[in-house]
Amino acid sequence: MCGRYTITISFEELLAYYSADDAAGSPYGPRYNIAPGQLVPAIVSDGSRNRLGLLKWGLVPPWAEDPKVGGKMLNARVETVAERPAFREALRRRRCLIPADGYYEWRQTAGGKRPMRIRRKDGALFSMAAIYESWTAPDGSRLRTCAILTAPAKGHLADIHDRVPVILNRRSEAAWLDRRIQRPDEVLQLAIPLDPAELVVDPANRRVGNVTNDDPGCLVPDEEQGELF
């Protein structure tokens, strides 16, 4: 699964990577402990340009009676995303990229569960495949939400958790945003997770367990972890 992640690059680097516009004036700053239910930076395309915006993490289908259902729809499995009523239309028409430079999982050790941060070996930005929806409240206000796709873990990542977010290959990012690609089989051909050999696992600080902690200290192993790894 994917339940916490980081994006620590500058605003200028983020826009440059995606050749994106920030037409909505989205507030942005480095984040070290992004959690479900929060507004997260996302890249969408209108067919002619990429745009940066904010989506609430936890997808709420248009037909939902209560937006709280989003708390149960943080991730969408690649094995079933094309079939589930909550996700299938978004997979066809409303896909986005969630920028990140690391994500957290908890590894079981003799001393209990410890947070680990998974990142690219070169520390570079990457894109998690995601889908989004727009939900209209009774008062007419709109809530835009998203879910991150996950796949079975392989290699050394499977020793930490049985699921991983779908981190797209760089050359697949533009196609993932291309609304002209709508056949589920064609879309899912793009949802191939990055080779785990390109990812490394670093011990993180147990402060990650508290969502109110969102600072560089989350990346620094505490003393006990430093002795174990």
Automatic annotation (TrEMBL):
One of its GO terms (biological process) is protein-DNA covalent cross-linking repair. It comes from the Bacteria. The keyword Protease applies. GO terms for molecular function: lyase activity; peptidase activity; single-stranded DNA binding. Its EC number is 3.4.-.-. InterPro entries: SRAP, SRAP-like. It is an enzyme of class 3 (hydrolase). The keyword Manganese does not apply. Pfam families: SRAP. Keywords: Covalent protein-DNA linkage, DNA damage, DNA-binding, Hydrolase, Lyase, Protease. Belongs to the SOS response-associated peptidase family. This is Abasic site processing protein. It comes from Cohnella rhizosphaerae.
